[in-house]
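[Meeting: bench + compute handoff]

Bench side (C.D.) handed over the final construct sequence. Compute side (W.E.) agreed to return the predicted structure before the next meeting so the bench team could plan truncations. Sequence as handed over:
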Amino acid sequence: MNAKAGEPTLGVWKHCLGGALVWWVLGLNLFIYHGAAVFLASFFLMGKRSSGKGLFIPASAVTLFFLSAVYLFSIALNAAANEPSRVLAACYNLSFWLMGMVLITAMANAFKLEEIPEVFEAFRKLSILICVLTLAVVFFMLRDSGPIEFRTPLYGFSQHLGNTALIKDSFVLKPLMVDWFASYSRLRLNLLGPYPTASAGLIMIVLAFLMNETRKLKHRNRLWQWGVLGLNAAALFLTLSRMSILAFFLAVAAAWFLEKKKVLLWVLFSAGVLLLLLPWMIPFSEWMMGLRGGSTSTRLSLYRYTIDQLDGLDWIVGVGIKAREEGFAIPIGSHSTYVSLLYKTGALGLFLFTAFQARLILSWIQLKEYARSRRNYFFFWRVCGYVFISMGFWMITEDIDAPQLLAFLYFSLVGMFEGFQKKLRDEQKEKTEYEEAKRRILNSRYQGQPSRS
């Protein structure tokens, strides 16, 4: 596993990511990534104990700790009034935030600047897997074989784990499913995740790495890389996830503006362009929402109903547990990380997560000039921006505390960025101190020379 002195390394993380297809087909997604986070943390703590090195705890991990504490308090406060299956489901959602806290800390401490090419390599392999699966599914689509569905070997355990929608989707795989889109019943791609929008979020992250790696490669390799990039882009569109597609393009545009040296000038320019395009943007947004009008209206109704359920103390710490109500096929407080956190953890939890995201974006912007010191650093910095911005949009209509692989990758990358930021700042600090020391030595030598007058 390429581990030294019990310290978790990128190799352990890469093995877990490399087995994504196996975990998905076997039905292990439900807990394998949580287990991997615990394994990484245990490995890491043993390494720290034996080496005697200090522990770096990123501010983002601290924020998730307090968010988890608020969530746990809210669950404990409301557990007695809810069914055991709903309490179990809430605890499973809570486990994602704990997994995020653990992953961020472990990856931030283990990250090394010289391992950036290995991170790109891991996502390149994942992108090739998505290409192969997409081609296989497209083959069945062209044969008009209809939806594809099969049970995993662990399907029998679903009835003992609450039999919720997420558990069913994790144990019954649907690589090709039927959904309503643009006034027709259409086939929809779903790979490596419990549902299509989770697959779309995963492909968004993969595309961020592919786009930047394509720009790094020499001309002789670009044809192959463009083919992989094109197939992954096709896979994103085949998920029929409107927000994911929109989030990806918005993130690319936003990152492109923010990486410019005269940011304010570009922001003002883009604001002017948006104002000019406003007459066309409004009809376009209405057309986008109308592609799956039933889904849009259901979600908006669910958001309104969810917020209406909050009363008194609920507005501060939330109700903890998402209940099921007649009239909705899914628990209230679903289909939006922000609305969900407001419902489950109140304004306190929502504020903590908003602060978590705002700090990431601000830290990313502030690191821009440091990242320009080397080509590899800049490309990794740019990928992090794509991921943080696109996932921020993605979470408007989806929950991050449900899709296992996507959450694992997102929090892993947050941890890598924290480590990247610390190492880069330390490197620049050492360089500055060295240059300052060199300047002082030269000055002292110059001042010590006898006058020639």
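W.E. noted at the follow-up: Confidence is low (pLDDT under 50) at residues 1-7. C.D. will use this when planning the next construct.
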